[in-house]
Backbone:
């Protein structure tokens, strides 16, 4: 049966990829795409599907507006991607992160409580668990305690707590996914991979934090979208699922991949001071989603990253106009916080 699916943060990186993924794999459903179009949101990310979805320009912290949008038709699914998502910006402007990520999520939950929804899915991050030592042998499990270390990860942790509270207190059928670092097309050129690619394509330096051995677990955005769709349809309400790959790479290894694929000189790599609270490493134990739902990542890291690099090389018209919208550059933010 055709469903009404609300996607918040739909004009962002993962949200827009998710809309495209859901559209292609579940064509009978109606997608209501909500986005406040902040500096990081871009309606052009939805250009190829805009005639097939309902787009609503609105802020998730606006309760009256959310009631209007979610109350005018029966809603089967709400997937919440809407967030302030850039860790470095959170160091400078923590309030906007707590406002959108915690209070915005709570407003959505409250509206879902009033109108009734089939499923509320919260898109969360590995960063809520804090960080791991570089030589740690363990990975974060769904039972690991939350130990966020930055305003961004603390605000995402607060949102997850609100989601669980609404499930336990009001019986809202929720699921949560905590995911590793995503890469793919349409990622705003402030995040490390598109920053490196667009800088290399412009002959500018690639700013690496001093802890160049710090590493991340990487996942293709399409694999992430497939996992979320599966959790929504087959996951157990009240449960949390980790979405990871086990494939790690340091920031310097990512820089080398970019330079190698584009034939750019190694001299473009530069070291900048570490961001305060810069996490060393995250790694998710994702055996639950494999075992319970049969999900597996399908894109090998190097292949997926190379494909992403080529997408940016071929889509200058998409990213060049965005450069002036960036609120922060990794070269300058450190001195800004120290003023
Ligand atoms: N990018 C990753 O690697 C990653 C990993 C794990 C989890 N996540 C989570 O996935 C979600 C999406 O991340 P992303 O990388 O696509 O971020 P993004 O910054 O590209 O997109 C966020 C979108 O939310 C919109 N938005 C912001 N505030 C809003 C508000 N108040 N009301 C409505 N819309 C608003 C923005 O306009 C933007 O379109 C976030 O919740 C993030 O925490 C991201």
Residues:
């Amino acid at each position: 049966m055709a469903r009404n699916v609300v996607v918040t943060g739909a004009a962002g990186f993962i949200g827009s990829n998710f809309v495209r993924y859901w559209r292609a794999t579940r064509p009978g459903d109606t997608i209501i795409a909500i986005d406040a179009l902040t500096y990081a949101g871009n309606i052009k990310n939805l250009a190829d599907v805009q005639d097939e979805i309902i787009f609503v320009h609105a802020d998730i912290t606006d309760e009256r507006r959310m009631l209007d949008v979610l109350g005018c038709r029966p809603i089967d699914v709400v997937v919440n991607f809407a967030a302030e998502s850039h860790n470095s910006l959170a160091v400078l402007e923590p309030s906007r992160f707590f406002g959108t990520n915690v209070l915005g999520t709570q407003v959505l939950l409250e509206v879902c409580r009033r109108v009734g929804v089939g499923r509320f899915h919260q898109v969360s991050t590995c960063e809520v668990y804090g960080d791991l030592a570089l030589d740690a042998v363990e990975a974060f499990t769904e039972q690991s305690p939350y130990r966020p270390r930055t305003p961004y990860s603390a605000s995402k942790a607060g949102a997850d707590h609100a989601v669980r509270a609404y499930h336990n207190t009001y019986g809202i059928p929720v699921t949560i996914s905590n995911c590793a670092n995503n890469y793919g097309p349409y990622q705003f050129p402030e995040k490390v991979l598109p920053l490196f690619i667009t800088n290399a394509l412009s002959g500018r330096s690639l700013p690496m934090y001093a802890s160049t051995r710090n590493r991340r677990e990487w996942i293709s955005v399409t694999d992430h979208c497939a996992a979320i769709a599966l959790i929504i349809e087959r996951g157990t309400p009240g449960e949390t699922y980790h979405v990871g790959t086990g494939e790690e790479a340091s920031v310097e290894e990512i820089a080398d991949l970019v330079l190698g694929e584009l034939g750019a000189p190694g001299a473009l790599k530069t070291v900048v001071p570490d961001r305060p609270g810069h996490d060393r490493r995250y790694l998710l134990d994702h055996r639950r989603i494999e075992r319970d739902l049969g999900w597996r990542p399908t894109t090998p890291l190097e292949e997926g990253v190379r494909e992403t690099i080529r997408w940016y090389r071929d889509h200058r018209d998409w990213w060049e106009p965005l450069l002036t919208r960036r609120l922060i550059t990794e070269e300058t933010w450190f001195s800004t916080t120290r003023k």
Observations:
- DSSP finds twelve helices and twelve strands in the chain.
- The chain has a mean pLDDT of 95.
- The two ends are 57 Å apart (CA to CA).
- The longest strand covers residues 117-125.
